[in-house]
Amino acid sequence: MSPGIFEDSKLSKRFYKYFLIGMLVRLALLPFFFQRDLLSTYQRAAETVFAGNMASDFQQILTNIIHSVYLFIIKSIIPAVSDFSPILLDSDSWTSWIGFVSSYNVFTVLALFKGLYLVFDLACMFLILRLSFDDDPEGRLNVFKFWMFNPVVIFVLYIFARHDIIGVFATIIALILAKKDRKYWSIIVLAVAIALRFFPIMILLPLIIYLARSRKDYIALSIIGVSGLAGVEVFSNIYYGKSLIFSLLNTQHFNYILSAKLDLIIHDRIFLFIVAYFLIIFSFIHARKKNFDLLLNYGAIIYLAYIALCYFHPQYVLWAVPFLVIIFVRRRQLVYYHWLQFGLLMIVLIYWGDLVTKFVFAPLDHRFFIYITGLIPIIERFYSSAKFVNIFRSIFSAVSLWMIYLIYRDNRRIIGKGPAGD
User: Fold this and answer.
1) 103 in helix, strand or coil?
2) pTM of the model
3) Which pLDDT band, with edges at 50, 70 and 90, does 419 fall under?
4) Could you tell me if 329 and 180 lie in one domain?
5) What pairs with residue 261 in β-bridges?
6) Are 209 and 197 in contact (CB under 8 A)?
7) How would DSSP label each residue in 302-344?
8) Per-residue pLDDT tens over the stretch 281-323
9) pLDDT at 405 over 60
10) CA-to-CA distance for 304 and 399, rounded, in angstroms?
11) Which residue, of 38, 63, 146, 311, is most buried by count of CB atoms within 10 Å of its CB?
């Protein structure tokens, strides 16, 4: 926490106001909403805790270990959690979900399950203050405000209930270490973040370019950067007898990166995000004065390009937020576009049907939300639901690309007069 905030009575009052209101919103949402993947995550953890099956989440080993340790702790303290073991160990996804949302203690257990994400959210909201505005307490306070009331943070963690915040936490630590020029530790922590969740690998190249001072640094940092995945791969082959990396490469999630493409002739095609990604990297390589704020801007550009050009799930938008909340302080107009992004995202959710729309509210009244007509049948009465959603998906991409343009203009201001490259 910045001492400058508490040394100023007005700033300290604003800080406590933001913190208390933000926490009230979080605690109000904690017991009531979740998307089915939360239950799946804890079912895999329950396989480890109650059945001793360490291979229950082969593709997310570290994430499963964290959830398993947390589940073991809360079930040891609160007996109600152990009462849910038959539901958590039920392999039928529909009956286990029905059993969970109709349980007497669903609100208590749901709050406990999501409590893990609240802990990481609290850690992130204070750590992120260390990323910028060292001599500007009000700037830091505004970063705190933009995180506390960020609609994507609140939605992904407390309504959708997804665990991406764990990887975001590790990524923020890596960025703080990079800011302090602790280059090897920064890449080591980012390697752990990559092992937790694949998305931090997108900023590995710009982080290495920012930190490296010699050819030796480039080689060493690159090796360290992939060591997280390599370590998990070795463990996976030894313990499970199969490859994690090739398993991931063959999943639909990796194909999301390749989803936007131009088909040329026969087997020849161009993957748009790959093209955009390396154009962004080349731009960063040739940028003058590679300061830390410029690195953060490029991090935002990369993640915005991903959600603009690729098929994505709603929780993936969270990866852009740590970078955006800092840029918001310098470019306030981006805040309005971000809220527009969020509004469009709520329409794009219709893609996935009942699972991510009406079923999210099932703990409140499972019978009502199971049998109420979903959004897709209602839209289909008047127009193609796929076309309807894709119109708004296209606008979402336009907003994201426009935000990239505005951030690129901010790059020019950061590095001084002239274009962002040589």
Assistant:
1) coil
2) 0.90
3) very low
4) no
5) 271
6) no
7) HHHHHHHHS---GGGGGGGHHHHHHHHHH-THHHHHHHHHHHH
8) 999 998 878 889 999 999 999 999 999 999 888 899 999 999 9
9) yes
10) 10
11) 146
Q: Which range of residues forms the domain containing residue 362?
A: 251-422
**Domain annotation covers residue 410:** yes
Residue among 68, 59, 67, 60 at smallest CA distance from 242: 59
Number of domains the chain is built from: 2
Burial 121-153 (b: 16+ CB within 10 A, else e): bebbbeebbbbbbeeebbbbbbbbbbbbebbbb
The span from the CA of 11 to the CA of 261, in Å, is 49
Comparing C-alpha atoms, which of 181, 180, 126, 130 is closest to residue 148? 126
Whole-angstrom CA distances from 124 to 53, 117, 411 are: 31, 10, 25
Structure tokens at 5: 């905030």
Query: Tokens 């570290």 belong to which residue?
Result: 62
What type of residue sits at position 45? A
Q: Is 270 left (phi over 0), alpha (psi -120 to 50) or beta?
A: beta
Secondary structure of residue 164 in the 3-state scheme: helix
Inter-residue contact 113 to 67 (CB < 8 Å)? no
d(CA 68, CA 90): 17
Could you tell me if 274 and 237 lie in one domain? no
- Closest of 83, 43, 86 to residue 67, by C-alpha: 43
Task: Tell me the longest C-alpha to C-alpha distance in the chain.
Answer: 68
What type of residue sits at position 159?
Answer: I
Side chain identity at residue 257, one-letter code: I
Query: With contact defined as beta carbons under 8 Å apart, do 403 and 348 qualify?
Result: no
Residue type, 194: I
